[in-house]
Design a protein that fits this description.
The structure holds 2 protein chains of 2 kinds. Chain A is α/β, with parallel strands linked by helices. In chain A, about 40% of the residues lie in helices and about 25% in strands. Chain A contains 10 helices and 10 strands. The two termini of chain A are about 35 Å apart. By secondary structure, chain B is an alpha/beta fold. Helix content of chain B is about 30%, strand content about 15%. In chain B, the strands form 3 sheets. Chain B has a 7-stranded mixed β-sheet. In chain B, helix 2 crosses helix 3. Classes of the chains: A alpha/beta, B alpha/beta. At the A-B interface, helix 2, helix 4 and helix 5 of A face helix 6 of B. Chain B: One of its GO terms (molecular function) is metal ion binding.
Chain lengths: ~260, ~325
C-alpha cells in the first residue's frame, strides 16, 4: 500500500456478514479503502461479490459487521447509523453507483441532459442555464455529442447509456464510486473504449472505486488492488498484478488460468 | 360550516338521508383529516374515502369534504371549469340541495362554501369563505416516481429535486416551462403540492389567500389544505421564472382583461370567441354595463342567454 501511504482510509469495512436466511451471502469481510484507490472484487457468479457491494453502498443492510466512511468533514461515520436523509445526501453527492444495466441507473423517460442534471437539482441548483452547461460539459467528457443532450436514453446504444450513467454519477464530483459489472453486456470494442474512458476519469478525478467484476481483464486494467471471493469468503487479496501474475490460492490459479487466450 | 345538525333517529326511520348524505361518524373522521391537513399545510393526509353515489372523477373527494364541513346555514356554490351551469356543477349542486337542503347560489360573494373543479373565482375570496377543490391525482411526484412508498419518503425528507427535473424537461423540449395546469407549488417553504388541475393562471391566487382552501381526492383517499394567508410559491428556475398565461384579447362578452378565458367555437367556418371562464364574474360585469367587442354578435348573444355548454378547449383531466 505504498501508493497511498500516509493518508487515512476513506472506507473501513469490519467483518461484514450477510445471511440470506440460512444461506451465506458474504461472510466476515474486512478491508480498508484509501482515497484514490481502485479495488476490484472478483469471483464467479454466486460468490457474494454483489451482496458485498450492496452492503457497502447501503443498499442492503448487513447481518453483522460495521462499515465506516470518512465524511467530507473528516469524521469517520458508521454508514448504518446515519439518518435516512444523511444517507441519501451522501449517495447523491459524495458517492456514485454504476449499475450493470444502465436502465437501472438512468431515468429512461427524461432527456440525457436532465439525467445528468438531476443530482445538481437534487442538491439545490436552480439555474437552468448553469445546469445545462454543466450537463453539456459532462456529456463531452464521456464522449457523447452535444446534440444528443435532449434525446431520451432510450434512443442511446448500450455503450452510450453506460457512459451517460457514468456522467450522471460523476457530475457532483463524488469521492467514492461503486460499480457493478460496468462493462457487462457490452461488446468487446465498446468495452475497451469504456474501460479507457473509466481509467482516464478515475485518474483525473482521483476517485476511489469499488468495482465488482467477473472479468479479470477489467480488474487488470482498472484496479490497483484485487479481492478474490468464493462462497461468500475473501480467499485472496493483494496488488492486482501480484495476484493475477502469481496467484497463491488454488481457486485463484484456476480463475486466472481459465481466461481464454486468443 | 357551523355546527352540523345531529339527526334524530326518527328521520332515519322515514328513510331519508342524513344531513349532507354522509353519516356523522364519517364526517367526524373527515374533519379530523381536514384539521390535520390544516395543521401541516400541503401535507397529504390519508383518509378513509367513502363510496359516493357518483363515479370517481366527478369530485367524490371534494363532495366528501364539503359534506363534512357543511352546516344548515351555509350557502353553497359549485363550479366546474369556472362555470356554474355545466353538468358536473349542476349535478353536485343538486346533490346537496337534495341531501342537505342548503341554500345554493351562483354568486361568488354570497357563498360561504365554494366547491370547485379547475378554477378559482376571479373575484377575491374573503376570510369567511372556504374553497373546496376536487382533486384527481394529489401526488405531484406521481408521474416522475410511480412508487407511493418512495414518494412518501421523498416528501418526508423534502427530497424534491425530481420536481425540477420535470421543469427542466419542459424547458429543454419546449423552450419554456410548458406545464400549464396542476403546476407544482411549495407550501409554506416545506411541502411540494399539486394544486389539482387548476390552470397555472390561478396559482398566484392560492398564495396568501384569505379563504381556507381544502383539497379532497376521493379515489386516492387524500385530503390536504392550505390555511388562510399561507405562503405558496410556484416552482421555477432562476433564469426561467414562473409566469402565468396571458391573453391578448379581452373577454368577448364583458370585455374583462387579465382574467382566464375559454375559447368557444361559434360555427364550423372558423368562427370563435374568447369568453371569461368564470361565468358568474362575466355575468356580473355585463349586468354592470360592461360590454365586450363581441357582445352584440348574434352567436354570442345566444351563448350568453343559454350559458356555455361543451365547446371548450384547454384543460382536460390528465
Amino acid at each position: 500500500m505504498n501508493l497511498f501511504h500516509g493518508e487515512d482510509p476513506l472506507l473501513q469495512v469490519h467483518n461484514v456478514t450477510r445471511y440470506y436466511g440460512d444461506r451465506v451471502g458474504c461472510s466476515e469481510v474486512s478491508f480498508d479503502l484509501w482515497p484514490g484507490e481502485v479495488l476490484a472484487i472478483v469471483g464467479e457468479s454466486g460468490s457474494g461479490k454483489t451482496t458485498l457491494l450492496n452492503c457497502l453502498s447501503t443498499r442492503l443492510a448487513p447481518t453483522a459487521g460495521a462499515i465506516e466512511y470518512r465524511m467530507r468533514d473528516g469524521a469517520m461515520r458508521n454508514l448504518y447509523q446515519l439518518s435516512e436523509a444523511e444517507r441519501r445526501l451522501l449517495m447523491r453527492t459524495d458517492w456514485g453507483f454504476v449499475h450493470q444495466n444502465a436502465a437501472d441507473g438512468l431515468r429512461m423517460n427524461v432527456s440525457a441532459g436532465a439525467n445528468v442534471g438531476e443530482r445538481l437539482m437534487a442538491v439545490g441548483a436552480r439555474h437552468y442555464g448553469n445546469i445545462r452547461s454543466t450537463a453539456d460539459d459532462w456529456l463531452g467528457r464521456v464522449e457523447i455529442d452535444s446534440d444528443r443532450i435532449d434525446d431520451d436514453p432510450r434512443s442511446f446504444s448500450g455503450g452510450m447509456r453506460q457512459r451517460l450513467q457514468i456522467a450522471r454519477n460523476l457530475v457532483t464530483q463524488p469521492r467514492l464510486v461503486f460499480m457493478d459489472e460496468p462493462t457487462g453486456g457490452l461488446d468487446v470494442s465498446v468495452q475497451a473504449r469504456l474501460l479507457d474512458l473509466l481509467r482516464r476519469l478515475v485518474a483525473d478525478l482521483g476517485l476511489s472505486v469499488v468495482i465488482v467484476t467477473h472479468d479479470l481483464a477489467v480488474a487488470r486494467l482498472l484496479s490497483h488492488r484485487i479481492m478474490v471471493m468464493r462462497h461468500g469468503n475473501v480467499i485472496e487479496t493483494g496488488l492486482t498484478d501480484q495476484v493475477l501474475d502469481d496467484p497463491r490460492e488454488p481457486y485463484t490459479q484456476l480463475l486466472v488460468s481459465s481466461i481464454l487466450q486468443v | 360550516m357551523t355546527d352540523t345538525a345531529q339527526i334524530p333517529d326518527s328521520v332515519y326511520e322515514q328513510g331519508e338521508y342524513n344531513f349532507a348524505y354522509l353519516d356523522e361518524q364519517t364526517k367526524r373522521m373527515i374533519r379530523r383529516a381536514i384539521l390535520k391537513g390544516i395543521a401541516i399545510p400541503g401535507y397529504q393526509v390519508p383518509f378513509a374515502s367513502r363510496e359516493m353515489p357518483m363515479p370517481y372523477g366527478w369530485g367524490t373527494g371534494g363532495v366528501q369534504v364539503t359534506a363534512a364541513i357543511l352546516g344548515r346555514d351555509d350557502c353553497l356554490k359549485m363550479i366546474d371549469q369556472g362555470s356554474d351551469d355545466t353538468t358536473n356543477a349542476v349535478s353536485l349542486r343538486g346533490f346537496f340541495e337534495k341531501t342537505a337542503e342548503v341554500r345554493t347560489t351562483c354568486e361568488t360573494a354570497e357563498a360561504t362554501i365554494i366547491q370547485t373543479r379547475h378554477r378559482i373565482p376571479e373575484k377575491p375570496l374573503t376570510g369567511d369563505q372556504i374553497l373546496v377543490f376536487q382533486v384527481p391525482i394529489p401526488e405531484p411526484l406521481r408521474f416522475l416516481e410511480p412508487r407511493e412508498t418512495e414518494t412518501r419518503k421523498m416528501h418526508a425528507l423534502e427530497d424534491y429535486g425530481l420536481m425540477h427535473v420535470k421543469l427542466y424537461e419542459d424547458i429543454a423540449k419546449n423552450g419554456h416551462i410548458a406545464t400549464t395546469y396542476a403546476y407544482p407549488v411549495k407550501v409554506n417553504d416545506r411541502y411540494v403540492m399539486d394544486p389539482s388541475p387548476t390552470p397555472k393562471f390561478d396559482n398566484p391566487k392560492i398564495d396568501r389567500m384569505a379563504a381556507l382552501q381544502l383539497y379532497g381526492a376521493g379515489r386516492e383517499k387524500r385530503i390536504y389544505a392550505i390555511p388562510p394567508y399561507t405562503k405558496v410559491k410556484s416552482l421555477d428556475f432562476e433564469d426561467y421564472p414562473f409566469e402565468i398565461q396571458k391573453f391578448d384579447k379581452p373577454c368577448g362578452l364583458c370585455g374583462a382583461e387579465n382574467v382566464y378565458l375559454d375559447e368557444v367555437i361559434l360555427d364550423d367556418r372558423g368562427g370563435r370567441m374568447f369568453v371569461c371562464s368564470d361565468s358568474d364574474y362575466c355575468e356580473e360585469r355585463r349586468a354592470d354595463g360592461h360590454l365586450g367587442p363581441m357582445a352584440a354578435d348574434p352567436a354570442a348573444a345566444r351563448i350568453s342567454s343559454t350559458g356555455i355548454d361543451g365547446a371548450k378547449t384547454g384543460e382536460t383531466v390528465r
